[in-house]
Amino acid sequence: MGAERALRRLPWRLRYGLGGRVMSTTRRLMIEATHLHCHVEFRGPVRIGPGFAIDIPDRGTLIVGPGVDFRRGFVCEISGEGRVLDLDRNREALHLRAGNHDRRRQPSLS
Q: For 3-7, 10-14, 91-95, which range has the lowest pLDDT when averaged over its residues?
């Protein structure tokens, strides 16, 4: 009975476990490849969910610490020389505008 249950859960584990990690890594690589004009740094493992978007048209900076979970639909806009530094696993930011310090939703402390 245990083997049957494990077999039934296999598609779920592949899609949400392995698939989620693969897609998060793919999103991270795409961000690093398309933001060469600014400073984007991920210090350690992070999870980047679907709909993640950063808009850094100038020379802004985004530095993220290990363990951060960017939830579905995260948006970060950094204008000019704006900076967002050292987000860490103890903060969850859903919609953060960093360039002009206009925060639509404050990060919540865990």
A: 91-95
Domain map (residue ranges) of the chain: 2-109
Please write the tens of the pLDDT for every residue from 29-79: 999 999 999 999 999 899 999 999 999 999 999 999 888 899 999 999 999
DSSP-derived secondary structure for 28-51: HHHHHHH-TTSEEEE-S--EE-TT
**The whole model's pTM is what?**
0.71
Contact by Cβ (8 Å): 97, 86: no
Q: Is 26 helix (H, G, I), strand (E, B) or coil?
A: helix
Contact criterion met (CB below 8 Å) for 85 and 66? no
pLDDT band at 96 (very low <50, low <70, confident <90, very high): very low
> Alpha-carbon distance 70 to 48, whole Å?
5
Whether 77 and 98 have beta carbons less than 8 Å apart is answered as: yes
Task: Give the β-pairing of 108-109 and 91-92.
Answer: antiparallel
Distance from C-alpha of 31 to C-alpha of 97, rounded to nearest angstrom: 18
